[in-house]
Amino acid sequence: MTLSTTRLLALGTIAAALAVTGCDKNAPAAKTDTAAAAKSSDPNAIPGLKDDKARVSYMIGMDMGQTLKQVKDEIDIATLEKAMRTQLEGGKPLMNEQQAQQVREAFSQKLQAKRIADQMQQAGKNQKAGQEFLAKNAKAAGVQVTASGLQYQVLTPGNGPKPKADDAVTVHYTGTLLDGTKFDSSYDHGGPATLPLAQVVPGWREGIQLMPVGSKYRLWIPASLGYGEAGTPGGPIPPNATLVFDVELLGIGKAGAAGPQPAH
Length: 264
Fold this sequence. Notes:
By secondary structure, the chain is α+β, with helices and mostly antiparallel strands. About 40% of the residues lie in helices and about 15% in strands. Helix 1 runs antiparallel to helix 3.
């Protein structure tokens, strides 16, 4: 998340809140009644939030807190509150718009550099974990290794034809990371996926061509045959992740008749 995005979201929340409170400016004042009566007469009562103003204020705080959570270590809450109060009360800010823009750009660059550093660190960690796992897994009973480094195991044999690289295939599949985290599954999409092999990552393309129709294989796809150092930015697959797929080949069709696309 860039600073400009954070700022826009925060400002949007404040603007929305001001619009809401503005609409209530002319509302009649709440009657001063006993606490018990007020509680029983207010269908929107929430413990700890005495009235509608408190509820709206808390809602805005929740939205802003969620928006700013990713940069919480970079924020001084007291200073943030001071700037908000100054703006809302029409006071004179401690920095002008030019200074604010300079700070904004510098902060955005800092966050970008941190994101790249974190990604490189994660990529190195995942690469090492994948190499260690594949070296051990290659020695497991029933696991076969191709020249490219793809590993596979026959879970259920089949006796149908094998697809070619320019075919489309209909499959059921579940994809996980090495720690067992599921990132995609045809079962979650309501039915098998039909896709052209030309459009999938190399590990999938190679592995599916080894399978006869009717078979079910487990594929271990090294990062170099999957999404590599990039992973799926903003998506479920980290950089340099080794992927595990259980795939059942249901049929072979013509390329171009693709259905739901799996995350590979």
